[in-house]
Amino acid sequence: MKELIPVRLSHLLRHCSVGAVVRGSEYLMTVKDIREWTDKHDANASRPIPYVERVRSALGIDQELREPPMAREREKGKGIVDGVCIPAIRFPFWMKCPTCGLLHYKPWKRLEDNEKPRCSETDLKKCPKSPFLEQVPWIMVHRNGYMADIPWHFIVHKDQKKCEPDYSGKPYLRLKDDATKSYKRELCCERCDARAEFKEQMEIPYGKTFEQPWLHSGPEEQVNELAEIMEINDTRVHIPKTDNALVIPPESRIRKGTIVDRLYCSSENRRQIEQARNDLARKSAFKTLATHLRCTSAEVDIMSASRIKKDSLLANVGYAVGIN
Q1: How far apart, in whole angstroms, are the C-alpha atoms of residue 142 and residue 144?
Q2: What is the DSSP string of 241-290?
Q3: For residue 304, which of 274, 267, 281, 268 has the smallest C-alpha distance?
Q4: CB 91 within 8 A of CB 30
């Protein structure tokens, strides 16, 4: 089932940027990175931002700056959109029964559209009403910006290795609040009766590789690098890094389709000129571009010089980017 969340551009650059954990109407989710911002043909769905040479220089990058794709929902609640949506994935993958504490791994995979996951506990003494599940409010965060699900099986079995993890079968891990001690939680395995205390901010091995949730290849194979357990609402989980950018006239008044506009909008065209090391190489680049742009070499030379002159009018600014 698709869940659509309207997001402003300013939010997409900050608390809804890549790697942020966002709360939807039904689930928590995290925004995927720009490699997956593609259309149905797997083509890049974003648009280049022209006239930002000094911005790229200030950021120290050679890549194009691009606007995020945009989409509009045709009919509210129908899940049909025009355009390309920013992709996200449900995360954390674990859900917990609010009554009995039974942990379920991706329980939505076995459901029909619009069906909400319920607790699968069959013992009515432990869970009499089969309530709706809630995503766990904790994740594992590495100091270098990676995050992952909490390895519940590893935590409860770290002192004994005989019990093998099983995420596709019947749920067997349970997280319970200790009624005798405030803020103490006990994690137990109902297959081998292993038990361990679960604490926030405890440090544990991050996982198999340094990957994000949408790239995760396996939930509980360990490496030695430690990560910290945090609540999703902890401000340290996602800290976007931003700079401001401003493009001032005359760049904003350049007519679309002109030679200078086409030079600005094509990083490949600009690269041919910038990589020319001498006059002969520049003449060759101008001739090649003139054929491509259907103009004369002299026009390309004039427009290139005009572009360089206009670049000097740009403010010394950056462009907003997001990191987790």
Answers
A1: 5
A2: --------TTGGGPPTTSHHHHHHH-HHHHHHHHT--SHHHHHHHHHHHH
A3: 274
A4: yes
Q: Which residue, among 285, 255, 284, 261, has the nearest Cα to 272 in the 3D structure? A: 285
pLDDT digits (tens, 9 = 90+) for 81-94: 788 888 899 999 99
Dihedral of the CA atoms 111, 112, 114, 118 (nearest 10)?
-30
Three-class SS of 68-134: CCCEEECCCCCCCEEECCCCEEECCCEEECCCCCEEEECHHHHCCCCCCCECCCCCCCCCCCCCECE
- Of residues 197, 194, 214, 77, the one with CA closest to residue 149: 214
Strands 185-189 and 173-177: antiparallel
CA-based max dimension of the chain: 86
Going by C-alpha positions, the residue among 100, 74, 72 that lies closest to residue 84 is 72
**What DSSP line would sit under 126-159, residue for residue?**
T-SS-PBPEE-SEEEE-TTS-EE---HHHHHHTT
What is the Cα–Cα distance from 307 to 301, expressed in whole angstroms? 10
CA 211 to chain centre: 11
Flag whether the pTM goes above 0.85. no
CA distance 13 to 181: 42
Please name the helix (run of DSSP H) or strand (run of DSSP E) that holds residue 30, with its range, or none: strand 28-31
Q: Are 94 and 104 in contact (CB under 8 A)?
A: yes
User: Do 90 and 26 contact (CB within 8 A), yes or no?
Assistant: no
- Give the C-alpha distances (Å, rounded to integers) separating 249 from 100, 184, 244: 63, 61, 17
Tens digits of residue pLDDT in 41-84 = 888 888 888 777 778 888 888 888 888 888 887 777 666 778 88
Residue pair 212/1 in contact (Cβ under 8 Å)? The answer is no
